[in-house]
Amino acid sequence: MEIDHVVLAARGKTEAEEVLDQAGLGVARGRTLPGLGLSNLVVPLRHGQILEVHYPNGETPAADAPPLLRFDTDALDTHPAHTLIPMAWLVVIEDAARLRDLAAAHDMSVIEAPAEGPEFPPYTLAGFGANFERRFLPCLIHWPQGQPVLDAPHRRRPLGITGIDVAGPVGTIEDWCGGEPDGLRTLPGTSGPVRVTVGFAEGPPVTFGLPE
Hints:
Elements: E1 3-9, H1 13-23, E2 29-33, E3 38-44, E4 50-56, H2 68-78, E5 85-92, H3 96-105, E6 110-113, E7 123-126, H4 130-133, E8 139-142, E9 158-167, H5 170-177, E10 184-187, E11 192-200, E12 206-209
Parallel strand pairs: 1-4, 5-8, 9-10
Antiparallel strand pairs: 1-5, 2-3, 3-4, 6-7, 7-8, 9-11, 11-12
């Protein structure tokens, strides 16, 4: 069971691009996230895995928007010396029926999201919102047409997410996902994702997030 992608918070686009470039990673695409007060950068890794970086864009969130901007701002204010702080993670479920079974068993919401352009196909998302209170829980995602195939000007070839540290109870996470996600290491507490490590074909891995 693989991690699909990890969402990280940044203070701004320039800072995020600088940190990614230092790691040897390029950006495939970015867009404004409607109504959230956030924009994003999408960094493809391998086999559809991505890092998604959120940063404030100066717009006021819609009155009924989920509190993603506040979550990001609070984390960055709490850790002023650090950049690209993991905020959320998603686990891919290959079988659509399995995703819906897990959603029903755990009273998860299910969202059918449309394509975001020709290179970013539609997807089914379960658990969004439930992970606001229990930040250690991932969203579950299914790609009925396959995961995105994106290119980016990387200076080093990423091998994908090799590990994620999450402060949360391992049994609850495994029950929620229907198994143990690859690369998961749980830590004491319930605050959620703490750091994520990306491996490369050339040179050492890079860890984004808070130091150990």
